Amino acid sequence: MTAKRTFRVWRGGGDGALADYEVEVNEGEVVLDVLHRLQATQAPDLAVRWNCKAGKCGSCSMEINGRPRLSCMTRMSVFEPEETVTVTPMRTFPVIRDLVCDVSYNYAKAREIPSFTPPADAGPEGYRMAQEDVQRSQEFRKCIECFLCNNVCHVIRDHEENKEHFSGPRFLMRVAELEMHPEDSADRRMVAQDEFGLGYCNITKCCTEVCPEGIKITDNALIPLKERVAGRRYDPLVWLGSKIGLR
Ligand code: SF4
Ligand code: F3S
Ligand code: FES
């Protein structure tokens, strides 16, 4: 079945505007299919980032009727038949053009995280891990780096000034993964709090809600990391050690 739909699409850079298009939609299509049809028929210069069209590359992130989504995984059938579909770029990152943002903030934050640090004397047998430790990491490793979680988090979505001090849920999850890794010898707790901005997170769980991989970012990464930070901060031995200059 084919029908005409109204698509309202952001055109231009940060000072651009929404433009309306009447476009054909076929049964079974996703939003990215319709954007490609727009490019083919009415707006050949429409900028859209995409790659796999299978929900695995994380390139096609945008906001569809105000909700952060992957456009290649958003079926047209989720909208009401007469509903206008409004497509805008992710709001938290600077717009380059149309639906394409500059997401380099995320890569800069990724580079700030000290890498996996095994003990100096770790031999091959030292890398054996309990299955539950493997599974914990595997959940976090499902991340496709779509940055929808960082886009939706209010700490930076509405506060440009917080970007310097906050890594966003995606990279706090990476810090949590390393902190909970049995073979990582670095203590990442105070760094998480003081340098990556864990304290800014007030557990709204919006990041978890939009994650296309269904990763429980808040429950399985951010809250356990907060508990570890609190455990260290309020440990009386740590407190005493810091007073006498030992820790
Ligand atoms: Fe995307 Fe989820 Fe990874 Fe965040 S954690 S970047 S929402 S896949
Ligand atoms: Fe932001 Fe997720 Fe925390 S949306 S406030 S990082 S729970
Ligand atoms: Fe790869 Fe959508 S095009 S996730």
Structure notes:
A 5-stranded mixed beta sheet has the order 2-1-5-3-4. Strands 6-7 form a two-stranded antiparallel sheet. It has 247 residues and is α+β, with helices and mostly antiparallel strands. The protein has 2 domains: 2-101, Beta-grasp domain (Ubiquitin-like (UB roll)); 103-244, Fumarate Reductase Iron-sulfur Protein, Chain B, domain 2, CATH 1.10.1060.10. It has 10 helices and 7 strands. It has helices spanning 31-41, 104-112, 131-141, 148-152, 154-157, 168-179, 189-194, 206-210, 217-233, 236-243; strands at 2-11, 17-26, 61-64, 67-70, 85-88, 95-97, 100-101. The longest helix is centred in the C-terminal third of the chain and has 17 residues, at 217-233. The site of iron/sulfur cluster (SF4) has 14 residues, from helix 4.
Helix-strand layout with pairing:
Layout: E1 2-11, E2 17-26, H1 31-41, E3 61-64, E4 67-70, E5 85-88, E6 95-97, E7 100-101, H2 104-112, H3 131-141, H4 148-152, H5 154-157, H6 168-179, H7 189-194, H8 206-210, H9 217-233, H10 236-243
Parallel strand pairs: 1-5
Antiparallel strand pairs: 1-2, 3-4, 3-5, 6-7
The chain binds iron/sulfur cluster, FE3-S4 cluster and FE2/S2 (inorganic) cluster.
Residues 143-149, 170, 210-213, 215, 217 line the site of iron/sulfur cluster (SF4).
